[in-house]
Amino acid sequence: MNLHPxxxxxxxxxxxxxxxxxxxxxxxxxxxxxxxxxxRDSAIGGHxxxxxxxxxxxxxxxxxxxxxxxxxxxxxxxxxYPHKMLTGRKLGxxxxxxxxxxxxxxxxxxxxxxxxEIGHTSTSVALAxxxxxxxxxxxxxxNLVAVIGDGSLSGGLxxxxxxxxxxxxxxxxxxxxxxxxxxxxxxxxxxEGLAExxxxxxxxxxxxxxxxxxxxxxxxxxxxxxxxxxTFRAVKDIDHPIVLHVVTQKGAGYAPAEAAPERYHWRAPxxxxxGEDRQAAPQESYSAAIIDELLQQVEAGVPIAAITAGIPGAxxxxxxxxxxxxxxxxxxxxEQMSVTSAVAMAQAGIRPVVFESSTFLQRAYDQLVHDMAxxxxxxxxxxxxxxxxxxxxxxxxxxxxxxxxxLPNIEYLAPTSVEEMLSMLRWAIAQTEVPVVIxxxxxxxxxxxxxxxxxxxxxxxxxHQGSEVAVMAVGDFWTLGEEVxxxxxxxxxxxASLINPKSLTNIDREDLHYLQEQHxxxxxxxxxxxxxxxxxxxxxxxxxxxxxxxxxxxPREFADNVPTEVLAEWYHLTPEQIVDDIERVLHxx
Amino acid sequence: MNLHPxxxxxxxxxxxxxxxxxxxxxxxxxxxxxxxxxxRDSAIGGHxxxxxxxxxxxxxxxxxxxxxxxxxxxxxxxxxYPHKMLTGRKLGxxxxxxxxxxxxxxxxxxxxxxxxEIGHTSTSVALAxxxxxxxxxxxxxxNLVAVIGDGSLSGGLxxxxxxxxxxxxxxxxxxxxxxxxxxxxxxxxxxEGLAExxxxxxxxxxxxxxxxxxxxxxxxxxxxxxxxxxTFRAVKDIDHPIVLHVVTQKGAGYAPAEAAPERYHWRAPxxxxxGEDRQAAPQESYSAAIIDELLQQVEAGVPIAAITAGIPGAxxxxxxxxxxxxxxxxxxxxEQMSVTSAVAMAQAGIRPVVFESSTFLQRAYDQLVHDMAxxxxxxxxxxxxxxxxxxxxxxxxxxxxxxxxxLPNIEYLAPTSVEEMLSMLRWAIAQTEVPVVIxxxxxxxxxxxxxxxxxxxxxxxxxHQGSEVAVMAVGDFWTLGEEVxxxxxxxxxxxASLINPKSLTNIDREDLHYLQEQHxxxxxxxxxxxxxxxxxxxxxxxxxxxxxxxxxxxPREFADNVPTEVLAEWYHLTPEQIVDDIERVLHxx
Lengths: 589, 589
Prior knowledge:
globular; 589 residues; Rossmann fold; transferase (chains A, B); five-stranded parallel beta sheet; 3 domains
């Protein structure tokens, strides 16, 4: 049900409808849209601060320009809620029954006003340059506007984009949305320069954008609608690239978000009155256990350096930072830097522990190959979000097994429990031979003892020794493995073996040989993509033997906001489906 | 035999030995070392211009500082020959019999004066920052010097490094070696800013480095030894990060290299007198065939854009640029930019063809995932150097099948001949559904007709229909496949089938079903890493069937300057070894 049938927004079906409104009406829209951001985010979770802060930029863009003839490209696109409200998708914000119709990022399949599905930072300038080059080749006239936050500027691709933007001799409007924040705090010298520009109202002679040959205009209050309208009017149809340095307030118009920008960058569902999360945080977490261990090790004198690329909150790292600030390094949103500087630290005798998410670590793939794997230094890395799960396809975290386990020298470990994870972490920090990556489990904390302490030779845990079928359950899929083994017993009276392979990169040849002797079928279960995954490594190993293999995981595809249970059904990952598939194979033998 | 027993260099066993020399002697060393660079490169190939240009910086560094207590980190490290000559490895340049003892890049296993094995650009600042952070945590005092070329600055990681360098409150000396060149010409607005700094002798108020909070000092002639010594003396033991903007001449001291910096960036063996290549270029090449096709298509009105990230020479692209400059885009050394801007161009109706090398494309992995695959726009991409081959481990090009074939939506094609490659290219450009990547063969040009024109459904080419054993030979390994089939007939009297699978991502289920019925063993041959490769995809497919699989390719390891024939022996990739392995499997059945 539309919660606000009285809202002026109800009359806005496309940006064209804005053109008739006066300033007061546009301001009323801003107020309504802020309320809608808060209502939706508090109900289903989402980005708060970025959307509140960008309200006036969005309204002014659609008031002045003619979308989709003129085009706006949102960096990360987590700030595109107001844009969506004005481009035919208002019901996704007015009516809770329709919240699910609209994703949290730009989506070409939703609207002609969206051009890319985007969720990672620092891409918008490069995309806009490509659009401009295409426009010029086709001899068209259109305004192209890219909106990039100051926080996104620390990522190398943003710089590569700016460098190439300067080569254009045609229209390009780059809005640097300077809200003086990243996801967490901004990091690096770049922000001193931006601060100087703010202090001098854009007059400082030292100007990164001008240095690179870009025109430049400073806008002191990007949350003032009249100013933004005037600004966009002044640059509409400009014949060369220009940077609009627009200062906004992250979370503008909602005091709690203004006061706590990191907390309100993205929030899980929360109570609008109290500001508290709707769901209490779990009593224990894998992240907290890791931080506890690291604190103890620093206390004991181990020269640990904890490194994050701008997402300390995802790893409980603020607790570490508070206690040992000299051991804590946030490089900003700059994943390449996080990996390469860790390689150097490891080479120089420090024990770096790098905290990455599966989806963002993709941005440092060459640094994993050419810096970390090739130099084979003892970097320790924790990877979160390596899982088949609901959520946006832009952040799909199921590729890490493929891109990490195929690299030389790296040991990629997948613990099944908190005890095993800590055992692996202790070994990883103590050894000095190879880079070790640990795939932090994402499901509820499990307690099971570790069965080895030195992982330089992987010794499979054979949790149950049976025959005929062997189930190899990786990391977070351990519980699934137990369920499959239980159902095999119950339904088919098969006494299947259950194995914890621990490593995604190295195999225990002795145990695989044992499997070969006692079993007809080896089943692998992994919480990630099958292509290039763990299962394929096992399938290759057994390819020329009499043992058969059956691999379960995700197919080579993106899934956008599909509930995990639905994905499990689609991908044949429920215990029932797995047992059925096993039965079919056994019958065909 | 030492060709120059009379050289002063013979007395230099370690940098310490320089300290006694006077300026004239140091200059004599520079002259000798230039000659040695030319002799070695002309004999065995190597980087020319970078090493000639950096001579005085290197001599001054080792004269002023105390390596390895003080440390120099070379970006790309292709300019490290003079450094190697001064740090105990002179014989690798004086004596042709010892050329093979010393690699073309820094190598920690060669010397304590090298800290990383490096061959990709833009890493040195990030590495030096990591070293500095480690040094500070350990309470040590040492000078850390990173040397980065202006060409390397266009890569995002360089910017991420500079941004974080500014956070240090301790010694860090960043030498920006401004030789006004990249591998090819510099690209982007950044170089306007650097030009303005050169024009004003570093006095311009607009200064990228100062903008980011870094101290700055300009050096007009970095090929003047006295100046460089004085400069390093002035900043030795400095207590904060400083950029030394040092202007040098690429190829300094050798007129042909000064005159043609791109040609002399890296050269295959050449005649020092005539300047001509020792080995004539082959009559025909895959690259030339691609450019011919693109020229025809542009001529016919197809809106092609050819895109390179700074390596046009590797793809015959200068010929395209000359004819259609408006269709040609060199983004500089900025692989992320090359992919993301291509995605935008494809979205906007242009047909971008992106030219990448297997090893450098690693630097755009997230752009392949999050921009290209997720948005599934019709980018066409040519990948060179995807092969198991001799050469530096820093440029190992055997990972592309793993990192590309595991991604959704992408079609990764491996042609076996020039005709098949062009047929694939024509389809890739004509279709608008998916990103298509074509793995350009690296072996001698092969002529075989294509067996399909529309690759939206892969139809395996069954070149020979036999039984018992089926050999699937991918791309460049086609000839190997033919040899294996011939030897199977000759040695084992097996009439093996020979299949060209064409695609590294999609399978022909119908033909695989046929294979299953008529054969006991499927053998895969791929010119790349086995982990996450083509063979594993086939092994998984057949895992639960009665058919056995055997995969040939490279193991999960780096190989540094190992001749291809030796690698083939190591990896069981000779026809004899493959046939032996097949025989063993058949006997065990």
